[in-house]
UniProtKB/TrEMBL annotation, chains A, B:
PROSITE patterns membership: TAT
Domain of life: Bacteria
The protein's name in its UniProt record: Flavocytochrome c
Coiled coil regions, renumbered to chain: none
Cofactor: FAD
Any one GO molecular function term: FMN binding
Keyword Oxidoreductase tagged: yes
Residue span, FAD-dependent oxidoreductase 2 FAD-binding domain: 45-497
The family this protein is said to belong to: Belongs to the FAD-dependent oxidoreductase 2 family. FRD/SDH subfamily.
Native source species: Campylobacter curvus (strain 525.92)
Keywords (A to Z) from UniProt: FAD, Flavoprotein, Oxidoreductase
NCBIfam families, sorted: flavo_cyto_c (TIGR01813)
């Protein structure tokens, strides 16, 4: 078994050498090094692990205060999951809501999050998102992020439309401008292919540096890159003011995700980039950081089996077919969920079908007005493969192409349209998202399959983004965290577009406080 | 705030002295000591943390192989939660089932556990319980535990009756005989008031000892005994063959249980003994043990607000009023759950009522045959306070005493009895537990309130009871665990009476392998 690779197996595969020996000393020894036992190769004010939304927000904020900041990214490309994100950001009480007459409040935002999170969200963290959401939005605008200023998007589980969108409908709309500014900041650097391996502490337990490997080559083919990859050259870096963990979640960690949910087979696809593993999180647990709600793994109910990874389906469905159309069970031709319910509710509804019949992927479709809110580039990208989006002239064509009973399918569309007219949907879809489907077509059709998307649990932070220690129930000196590596904010299930809010708000706060 | 006690606060309270300084060095420094830096005061083969079911099973098994075993118990009394447990133990395919014609199987047992556990149970651990359940039963009989051999009990969520009961209907029926034998074993000792503080490792990361405090005085009045209690005298003990963690769960840890479920107020009662805190678990995380499914906290749906702690209600309801009677919502007089559903289903049903009206505790009642399966001592104990069990001559008396609409209540009993006759219960109560209620009375009535009862998550162990390390995905040399401190076996919700099976099977396995 690859996950129990012996030294002999490693020898067979030619993996043992100086690198392997260095690795084993990093991984198997007592946790964390003492600064007295190391020689620092470089000295920085602030070191940040991860170059996504949270890492860049922390980096820019810390840099603005005059700090010499180093951001470490283990992959060859920057931005982790952030850069492949759909780009929606929940900002309660934002100016576009004001302009378009949408009433929102801190209480409404928190109630929506708590409902999806099954009530186990940490309230003080949610409150911070509401209180600092507009600060985060302004911070992004100052740093060159371009938002659509004509409307907010209404994502599943939110009572009102409150999600700001970038003009390019992508997380890259945040990462690119933030990265450009960060790399221009005085004395700051973003180091690619540089892997965090361990912490360096002083005698009082304060985090004062990190051990890393430069020229790291992440290897997607290994069962566990964190445990098996021996590439790179070791360096020890001093972080005078502290370290920020912004390393993201673990949806691609075959070992740790299966420990939390043994139903996830190793073969299952994920919306996440290949580097989304638990390594940094687990190292922080060794320091005494509290593990919080680590077993809640969110599946994206808007993903498609007809493309790899995150893909384009999430945006084409969320802002397209789910809003302007319906989803049906191909076995019956009937609807089976509120297409805009929270993620857990929808993923559970899809899983129910797929557990009964593993290849009966539900379909979602709408008529040709469905992509009108999206930028043409995104729609083009979605259509390009010819495999993701099916174009059908009629309901009969959908029925024959996807193996759905035609009469039942027609009846479902008719019934939905009646609900739209009566302003009362049988599955409780929000009135603001009820649009008649033109029964004459043409139609755009996408198959659905839930994919592991977000790991809700992680490190416990306080409202200053400080990581709390189980040894004292107080902050670990010199250690901050933000984004998906933290736990508690989202409870059992994160609402769509709250991730960016979480990452930017707490990234910014980490940068302010460090 | 008590949970953020400063040094100044401690000074005010007269808590700072030599003890406090020793504590701060134990808690705030880097984790685990190296054997080169310590001097061992005593030397043992095996050291076990915790004196409940798992600890004693491990201790007896290790002792039988000729080991010099020390069991550490931080409290003044032994047995932790085990000794206040109701004493039921799931043993699939046991001889009493055979004698009474109950068909059971490994598959059925696993399916029941997986259903309650929402499918996230670790299958290899469940499988071990089924495979070794009878070994554990035989081990207990050999060690003097006396079981009722005329019938098995049918607990909520189990498809069939498979729970063996001790003749005294209490966990003490296991603890007392096991303790007696253990204390007679050559070279073995059980040390009360001895608190585990930290691990001692060798250069390769093997666990070779522990740091403890003798003459420890657990203090229930502290917000966190683990973090604030400075009592005791430090000793360092060598464990030549290893350490077994059998320290139980954390239902009484106000800090850690609230991090996992922020809805649990500090004031809430629990079925657990006061010492059920997370200290040992968190220390193991610092060694690199994987945290698994730590946020699933089970509430006992059979607890009563009319007594403290675990009390007698669990047994009086489980084997009494729930089996021979019904539970109703006092506001409506109607039933609201299958009285023998799994714990999560029932606790959620009760919480739904209590969230709508916090003082509307549901009631359960049955006629006077309801306690016939119980020993007279237990019934007497339950009746003793005069507060827990209400005796009512008629349905009208129940209605007036508990504020229930009388007509609706009569109708509920009538409807239930019709279901019994038709062998079809409206809430799906098992046919084998359908008994007509004598409408003439008299009745025994108990009010219900869910209490935190079991923490499902914890350390990841393999089927040899070895604790796995996140640094290697292999066992931590010299470290074993069993019982509630481990995670994964029960998934999201443990079925009643599987705890003892879990503790004895894995305690025994730890003892066999160490």
């Amino acid at each position: 078994m690859a996950n129990q690779m012996s030294r002999r197996d490693m020898l067979k595969m030619g993996m043992v050498g100086a690198g392997a020996l260095a690795l084993s000393s990093v991984n198997a020894s007592a946790s964390a090094l003492n600064e007295k036992d190391v020689k620092f190769d470089e000295e920085w004010d602030v070191i940040i692990i991860g170059s996504g939304f949270a890492g860049l927000a922390a980096g820019l904020t810390a840099a603005k205060k005059g700090n010499k900041v180093l951001i470490l990214e283990k992959m060859g490309r920057i931005g982790g999951n952030s850069v492949i994100n759909g780009g929606g950001m929940s900002v309660p009480m934002n100016p576009v809501q004001a302009k378009t007459g949408i009433k929102d409040s801190k209480e409404l935002f928190m109630a929506d999050c708590l409902k999806a999170g099954l009530g186990i969200n940490h309230p003080e963290l949610l409150e911070t998102l509401a209180d600092r959401g507009m600060d985060a939005f302004n911070f992004l605008v100052e740093n060159g992020v371009q938002f659509k200023m004509d409307h907010c998007a209404h994502f599943g589980g939110h009572t009102v439309a409150r999600s700001m969108l970038t003009t390019n409908d992508s997380g890259s709309g945040y990462i690119q401008p933030m990265l450009e500014r960060f790399e221009k900041a005085d004395g700051c650097k973003l180091a690619r292919r540089t892997k965090f391996d361990d912490f360096v502490l002083d005698d009082k337990g304060r985090v004062v540096g990190v051990v890393v490997r430069e020229e790291y080559k992440f290897d997607d083919k290994l069962y566990s890159d964190d445990l098996e990859n021996t590439s790179g050259t070791k360096k020890t870096l001093k972080a005078k003011k502290g370290v920020v963990l912004a390393a993201g979640g673990f949806c691609r960690d075959k070992i740790y995700r299966k420990l939390q949910d043994p139903r996830i087979p190793d073969s299952v696809d994920s919306t996440n980039h290949a580097g989304a593993t638990a390594g940094a999180l687990l190292k922080a647990f060794e320091l005494g950081a509290y593990p919080v709600q680590v077993d809640w793994i969110q599946f994206g109910p808007w993903a498609s089996p007809d493309e790899k990874g995150f893909g384009t389906a999430p945006i084409l469905t969320q802002q397209g077919t789910f809003k302007y159309g319906i989803a049906v069970d191909v076995r019956t031709g009937k609807r089976f969920m509120n297409e805009l319910a929270d993620r857990k509710t929808r993923a559970d509804a899809e899983f129910k079908i797929l557990r009964e019949k593993p290849d009966a992927f539900p379909i979602t479709f709408a008529d040709d007005k469905c992509f009108r809110d999206l930028s043409p580039e995104v729609v083009q990208k979605g259509m390009a493969s010819g495999k993701l989006v099916g174009v059908c002239k009629s309901i009969d064509e959908i029925a024959s192409k996807y193996g759905v009973p035609a009469d039942a399918l027609k009846e479902s569309v008719k019934k939905y349209n009646e609900g739209v007219k009566a302003k009362k949907d049988e599955f409780g879809k929000q009135e603001s998202a009820l649009f008649e489907i033109n029964e004459a077509g043409p139609f755009y059709v996408i198959r659905l399959s839930p994919k592991p998307h977000h790991t809700m649990g992680g490190l416990k932070i306080n409202t200053k983004a400080q990581v709390l220690s189980s040894k004292t129930n107080k902050p670990i000196d010199g250690l901050y965290a933000a984004g998906e590596i933290t736990g508690g904010t989202h409870g059992a299930s994160r609402l769509g577009t709250v991730a960016i809010t979480d990452c930017i708000v707490f990234g910014m706060i980490a940068g302010e406080n460090i």
